[in-house]
Amino acid sequence: MRGRPGSAPAARSASIGPTLARTFGRAHFGAIRGSFATIAVAGTSAGPLALGWWDDTHGAFDGALYYCGAATAPLVLAALALRRPAE
């Protein structure tokens, strides 16, 4: 059974604040959170544009979806290699 619609973004939104505060401290929390939100909005707007272009150019979304899946792998590896900053 699938989760409730919107539960993954809600869980991410609830966990990102404490994670950023624990990782970077609270002194610059607003600036870091604002930068994170800007990047998220840019990615959210660029994704449909890029996939729409792909569909218009190639006639199907298949290649774009494979590319997005393949592009995720190095990001997962990079995320797993991250360490907390020194205190």
Structure description:
It is a single chain. This protein is 78% helix and 0% strand. By secondary structure, the protein is mainly α. It has one domain.
Number of helices: 3
Q: Based on helices, strands and strand pairing, what is the structural class?
A: mainly alpha
Helix content: over 70%
Strand-residue proportion: under 5%
Largest sheet: none
Low-confidence stretches: none
Intertermini distance:
42 Å
Q: Descriptors for this entry?
A:
single chain; 87 residues; 3 helices; mainly alpha; elongated
Write the layout of secondary structure elements.
Blueprint: H1 7-24, H2 29-58, H3 62-81
Concise synopsis of the structure shown:
The protein is mainly α. The chain has one domain (7-81).
